[in-house]
UniProtKB/TrEMBL annotation:
It catalyses: GTP + H2O = GDP + phosphate + H(+). The lineage of its organism: Eukaryota, Metazoa, Ecdysozoa, Arthropoda, Hexapoda. This is small monomeric GTPase. Belongs to the small GTPase superfamily. Arf family. Its EC number is 3.6.5.2.
Amino acid sequence: MGTTMGKNGGHFLDALPSQATLHVVMLGLDSAGKTTALYRLKFDQYLNTVPTIGFNCEKIQGTAGRAKGIHFLIWDVGGQEKLRPLWRSYTRCTDGILFVVDSVDVERMEEAKMELLRMAKCPDNQRQ
Ligand SMILES: Nc1nc2c(ncn2[C@@H]2O[C@H](COP(=O)(O)OP(=O)(O)OP(=O)(O)O)[C@@H](O)[C@H]2O)c(=O)[nH]1
Ligand SMILES: [Mg+2]
């Protein structure tokens, strides 16, 4: 389960020419499934992952709907607690944030909500 938000309001795909590459940062708690989702998008298959220390980055071309033909550079950033202070440096100059939530992990839903709100309230991520 996840959600996206355009940093400049509205649907972030509408405002951009189809030739552009959109920079998207993927965030969420550790073990939320970010890297699994990234490699599923990139290689269309399930791959085993290890916890991300730092980030993974892949270029992906949208194949369906509004995303068709659009290139995305997706930054998948480690979600362990000690790594979360680094998230801000990844979101500062990005077109969108993809926040991944493990919907089965009910115990950490509140923690995920807090981290999402923290990022949304960060001055760098406010609508301009
Ligand atoms: N059952 C199930 N397991 C999943 C799913 N997505 C990921 N996993 C498993 O959850 C574990 C963590 O997945 P990752 O994709 O590495 O999680 P992550 O969000 O990248 O974690 P960090 O890199 O630590 O931030 C792995 O063992 C995955 O196989 C899913 O949709 N269903
Ligand atoms: Mg990961």
